[in-house]
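Pasting as-is:
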Amino acid sequence: MDTRVTRKHAAGLGLRRSFISQILAAPPESVSFYEIAPENWITIGGKLGKQLRTLTEQFDFVCHGLSLSLGGSDPLDENFVHDIKRFMQTHQIKFYSEHLSYCSQDGHLYDLMPIPFTEAAAAHVAGRIARVQDILGHKIALENVSYYAAPGQEMSEIDFFNTVVESADCNVLIDINNIYVNSVNHNYDAKAFLKAMPWHRVAYAHIAGHYVEAEDFLVDTHGAEIVDPVWSLLDQAYDLYGIFPTLLERDFNIPPMAELLREVDTINAMQTAWQQRHAQQA
């Protein structure tokens, strides 16, 4: 996969309009790359559009889609895929990721819905991913998602995910928080899930916070600080497979920049610690 996020030691930050002026005024040295949802920017011009272009000319960016609805039954919106391609070309962004979910049924549902874990659904999604990759001219990365129900389940989550990825021959965006949330909500071993993932396909990772509804029910919100068990799971992933670019997601309850950068600094520190441990062992 041709991507500008080429360094394994790299900590990223999801760019939000609320702090784009701060980034422009004082770009944080600890952030190696930024992520944007193209849907939120394709039609934006004026001051915000110029600010984004200024940043994409200076820093590495990736695109993370929200509304392609890879698992949906509506026809794939190929015009939208071409819009994404043009947007990426304009900003010289070489990497695109999306969710293993769907968000449309005769119109947008404005939420990421779970796909039935079946062989038929896996083949359906893989075919749509392949078509997106044909249009874009490169592989995309597929994100493992949080889910709260598994209607019509015939396969385990990890078997379904791996079947889709292998059939589509795509890359992987691993979401560490989603693994943790799902492991609590669906009572499985998070580290075993990590071990079963196709690590040779991992392009980068997400890490985020969640909301505790109950001891056995977590909600993936991206609206809180990252908790210790999620940090620990990221550290386990590094120990298993080495470090990889890892990006902090924060979508609402956005704190002051200093607090966001503190979590970015934690990612950097964990990657540095891994490098030091392995340098000593060499």
